[in-house]
Structures are given as structure tokens and as C-alpha cells.
Amino acid sequence: MAPPHxxxxxxxxxxxxxxxxxxxxxAAAAGLIALIISLVAxxxxxxxxxxxxPDAGSLTRWGLPIAKTTMDFAGALTVGLLxxxxxxxxxxxxxxxxxxxxxxxxxxxSALVWAAAAAATLVFQLSDLLxxxxxxxxxxxxxxxAGSVRQGIGLMFVILLATAVALFGRTAASGAxxxxxxxxxxxxxxxxxxxxxxxxxxxxxxxxxxxxxxVLAISVWVGGLAAVTFHGLRAKADHAAVAARRFxxxxxxAWAGVAIGGAASAISRLYQPADLFTTSYGLIMVAKTVLxxxxxxxxxxxxxxTVPRLExxxxxxxxxxxxxxxxxxxxVTMGLAGALSRTAPPPPLDGTVDPVAELLGFPxxxxxxxxxxxxxxxxxxxxxxxxxLLGGLYAAGVVRLIRRGDRWPWIRVAAWxxxxxxMAAVLLSGVxxxxxxxxxxxxxxxxxxxxxxxxxxxxxxxxxLALRALKPAKRRGDRGPREWLNAFLQxxxxxxxxxxxxxxxxxVLSPYAVYFTPLFAALMNDHLGxxxxxxxxxxxxxxxxxxxxxxxxxxxxxxxxLRIVLLLVVMGVHAFFGITIMMQSAPLAMExxxxxxxxxSDGVAEDQYAGGGVAWAIGELPTLLVMITLLYQWFGDEERxxxxxxxxxxxxxxxxxxxxDYNAYLQELDRRSRQQN
Length: 677
Ligand code: HEM
Fold this sequence. Notes:
- With 677 residues, the chain is mostly helical.
- The protein has three domains: 183 residues; 141 residues; 256 residues, no CATH class.
- The protein contains 30 helices and no strands.
- The N terminus is likely disordered.
- The structure holds protoporphyrin IX containing FE.
- The site of protoporphyrin IX containing FE (HEM) has 30 residues, from helix 3, helix 10, helix 11, helix 13 and helix 14.
């Protein structure tokens, strides 16, 4: 029988479903009205009749922003429902409760709406592009648009991922299943952000990552609040307070993500502050910012007043009321955002278009000097956030241990910090500017990212720190970050990727697969491609050195001798990689390097020859460092085993401690089997 105050609370939200419908309808209406007003005010739906150019017609002019905004809403709701099921509601040993399963099912319906809205957006987008009515673009044009044009491909990804969530959401009932669907849904909200205005604006590093972070954070914030509020309105809302409290923490991070992503998107599209007040694009953004601040204030009040009182009588009603207002305001902002994405951003100040700056995201840098390497920094938002998060979380873990009176070796802190400094040095400083125009500097960047940074990060023992610093879940059987990390370390996926037969080729053969195929030019030609390449080199290096010299608890322990052999193989294959580049008869990736001329360099071929030398030279030094570390660890291990043997034999055991242990284990097995018989 539920404790008395629970009964009171369910009474407080009588007619919960009606309230949910009212909030839903009010939010949809407010969002639509905001969209229509800002589209008209911004001139995005006024017919642009240019003599000789076809016009898609008003159905497309209105249909496109409405379909796109519906797609954003349905995507956010799908993410919110899956977030509630996978993380906000307590589970039992990875099995979802009945309410959570219900939300996975509900997500499969919203995913269906999402897929349909994305399909409509695809048709309207092509109709708008070709200036033809929607009915006339449904043939081959649509398939080729969906298969070969960036925006079309982006929307196809949304349709495929949303459909997958809709299908698998019909049957998924485990925590891991819900997390898999949530990951697919989060991946599904990003593609349009990578192919809209952000793809064509300058400062790619800010625009692309900024908008991706923006829409990801919005889907967690808006979708999560809608799902938690709906759960709070239900009469039988088990764990409503737990879900709201957990969401409240996630909402703080999401709010920060919306702010950082929104600001980065704004900076990469506006050329001067005046654009904010003199252009329709700027004014819509100002309106969004005002609403954003108001939403932040409401969120703060939730954390201070409503969430802490959720278990009190009437507490849920208070929370739901305020959340209802919040959801309506969020919808208005989403409506404004839909119009913003259809409103032309202000043009560049001098109106001239620099093709090199269009390609690189910045103008051709001057000749490389120590000073330009130290001053021409790249504001790559993805790596700024990565370094800040990795540094911040590690520091928080160490502080928690020290506060608890535990010790953490300073050498590990130093290794981790050095790893992050090397990461920032090659991904944010002038090195990353010149790495875009000079192959040799690119090779310095790549070698440090894949051969040096990972060794330092691995010696920081991040997994051990996380397992020691993270608190166990409050509820028995429930899974918090610590339990999920443990489950991940013991998963089949971890066992497979940490197998030397997987990690080694991934590490040592990737460069061959990238540089000696058209892949390299394709990745260099696209900001996202370049980002994925850097992340791949960093992660494959981390994985390889984690099984080589990692001090963390890994799924398997590889014998020292095998590690030494593997390292020698890697050294050889890597040296051969550098030499192969130097031996190239024709320069690599001319599809990329041929698009611009570096007036102060000796030429592409000479630069690539130098790049091959860099790969060969830089590659060997870290491997030597690892060899020394490995021998030191091996020696230390042998010593420890010896000491343990001595201790064992001093306690009257035989010389072979392992054998004794094994015999004790067999005896135990025998004792148990006798008991059973
Ligand atoms: C700090 C305040 C904010 C700023 C500066 C900001 C700025 C931006 C910018 C520049 C874009 C790109 C538009 C384009 O494609 O050109 C954008 C997109 C978007 N914003 Fe915001 N935003 C802010 C807050 C919000 C909030 C609070 C929400 C929702 C609750 C929101 C929802 C969206 C959505 C859904 C998009 C994607 C639109 C689309 O491409 O369909 N934004 N925002």
C-alpha cells in the first residue's frame, strides 16, 4: 500500500490526461503562431518572383518551414520519451519497468511522425530548390537528391533513423535496448543541423559543431521536459519525483549546451553586432535569446522550489503547472527557430567571396613562423568542449577522492594534463591552421594525436578514477553512471574491441586505409570529415595504448611478451607507412591540395615528402617511450609476484603460490559437489 502522501499527490493531478492534452494543444498552437508571425515578419514566405526563374509556389513556401518545425518537435519528443525510459525512471538490473516500456512504445509512435515530417521536408526542400511544385519533383530527381546532395542525404539519415526507432521501439524492453534507441534518436536530430545554413557559413569549426550541439541539447531539454511532465500528470506515476530530479540535473547541462551552441551558431552567421538589430535574422535571434533567458529563470525556479517539493502534497501540481508554461514558451522558441532557418542570414560585410576561405573556413595563412603557430588559433568548438570536459570531469573525480581522504597519484594527474595540453596544441593552435594547407603539418598533427596524446591519457588511468570516484546507484538493482560504466567494460563490445587482433590493425592499418585511398581527400574537403578523422586517430591510438600500457581494469590482460612483439610489429609497419609516403611518385589527395596554392611553400610534392619523414620520425619516439614503460611495468609486476610468493611461502604455503591457489579452488569445487550430492 503506497504511503499516505503519495495518495494525496495522485489526487492533485486528477484529470491528468486532460491537462496533458491542454498543454499539448496550447504548445502546438503557440509554436505554429510564432512560426507564422516570424516567417511573415522575416519575409521568408513572401514570393520572390525573379523573371525567368521558376517559383515553387505557396504550398512549398509554407509547407517547408511547417514540415521542418514538425520534424524538430517530433524528434525532440522521441528523444525525451526514450530518455525518460532509459535513464530518468529507475530500472531493475537493466530491465525496464512497465511505465518505461510504455514510453518506449510511445516513442515509436512519435518516431513515425518524425519520419513522415522528415519525408515531407525532403520533398518540400527539393521543390524549393528546383522552384517546382512538390508534385513535380517526386521522381528520379527526388532519389538522386536524397542520394547525392548533402541536404537530401542528411534528411534520408533522419528518415532511416526515425523509422528504425519506430520499428524497434515496438519490441524493445531492456535498458540496453532503450539506450540503443536513444542513441539512434540523438543521431537522428543532428544531420539537418550539419547540412543547413551551418554548412555554407564561414568559421566551419564554430558553425557545424555549434548547431549540432544546439539541436542535441534542445531535444534533450524540450523533449525531456515534455516526457517528464506527461509522466507527472499520470495518476499512477511511479518514481515521478526521481524522474523529475534526474531530469533537472540533465536540464542544467542541456541549458548550457543550448547557450554554447546557440552563441556559436550566432557568431558564425553574424558579421557585426549591429546585424542583431538591423536584420530579420538578427531580430528573430534576439527574440529567441530573450525567451531562452526566461526559460532559464523558470528552470532555476524549478530547481529551487518545485522539484524539491515534488513529494509533498500538491507538489506535483505545482511542478506540472510551471512545466506547462515552460513547454508553451519552448514551443514558441521552436517556432521562431523554424523561421530562422528559413530566413537568409546577413551577407558578408565586404560582399567579396574568397574561395580559399570558403573551403578552409579561414583565409590562406601567412608563411609559418613560431609566432603564427602561437597566434593563429582555431576556435574548433568540438575540441574546445572535448578538452574542457575531459579536464573538468577528471579534476572533479580527483577532488572527490581527495575530499574522501583517498589518494590519487599526482603522476597520473600530470600525464592526463599533458595529454590534454598536447591535444589542444595540435587541434586548436596554429598547428591546426597550417595542418589544413600543409600535408607536413597535418602529419605532425596526426602523429601527435595518434601516437603521443593517447599514451599520456592512458597513463592518466581515467577508467580507474571513474570507477573509484563515481557513487553507486542509490537504489538496489538500478543503474547509475558507475553501473553503466561497469556494464560497458564487461560488455561483449569491450571484449571484442580490446582484443589485440582488433585494436592493433585498427591502429596501425587505418593510416594506410585513409592516406592511400580517395578517403583522405574526401575527409579533408569537409569539416565534419576532418573532425571524424582526428577523433578516429585519437580513439584508435587510445585503444591500442590502453591494452599496451593501460593501468585501468581491462576486459583481458595481455602477456607482456606478446605486447612487446606487437609493439615491434607496430614500429615496423609504421616506419613503412612514412617511407611509403616519401616514395610516392605523385602527390596524395590532389583533389584537395589542388584547390588552393600555398604561395610561400616549396610545393605539394616537397611538402608531402617532408610529411612522410615526419610520420616516420615522430612515430618511433612515442613507441620507444611505450617500450620503456612496458618493461618497467613488467619488471614491477614480476617483483610483486615474487613478493606475494615469498609472503605465501612464509605463511607455510608451497613455493608455488599459484598452484596452491588453484588447488584450494579445486578443493572448494569438490566440497561443493559433495554437498550437492
Ligand atoms: C541563446 C539563445 C539562442 C540562440 C542565440 C539561438 C540561435 C540559433 C541559430 C543561429 C540557429 C541556426 C538557424 C539557421 O539555420 O540559420 C538556431 C537553430 C535552432 N534553434 Fe536556436 N538559439 C537559441 C535558443 C534556442 C532555444 C531556447 C530553442 C528551443 C527551445 C532553440 C531552438 C532551435 C532549433 C530547433 C533550431 C534548428 C532550426 C532548424 O534548423 O530547423 N534555440 N538557433
